[in-house]
Amino acid sequence: MLDRQSLREMARRHRQSLSPHQQQQAATQLKARFIQHPKVQAADTLALYLAMDGELSTQACIQWCWEAGKRVCLPVLHPVHAGHLLFLAYEADTPMQHNRFGIPEPRLDSRTVVPLEQLSLIFTPLVAFDSQGNRLGMGGGFYDRTLAQWHQHRQGPYPIGLAHDCQRVEQIPSEAWDVPLPEILTPGHHWIW
Q: Whole-model pTM above 0.70?
């Protein structure tokens, strides 16, 4: 079995090797799965993310949410509690900035912070996943900390991972702090555990 860093590098190479056409096709297929998901249809406030580094694009899903009257939130690095995320309301005209990792996020404004308990769903990016729902992120643990309450007590927003089909690996060596996901959507599958 490959170690976590080797798996991370391999999966990132796989998703970065997808052509623009393959990326667009994957985003279109994801949107079809996304809008048919019963939890998405029932949700009023969802957290998504803006894709980078070859991640599966969420832009069509975000646009659909806006058109359906759903509130969309994006993660923002917490300015005080290192290693934690805040979620801010996101609209087409939201002022954006790049965080220290170069990821676009809404400019911090306390008026647009959405408390975690108001989120119905959190769609998480990931680098790799396995058939047990284990996810491998970029290594910062931001989503693991955010989802700890859900993992321990099934309280808080319901998490769903988003990934390209090529990001599935045989097995991810898990750590005590890892939060397995109950569902992962890919362009080709809907994985539920």
A: yes
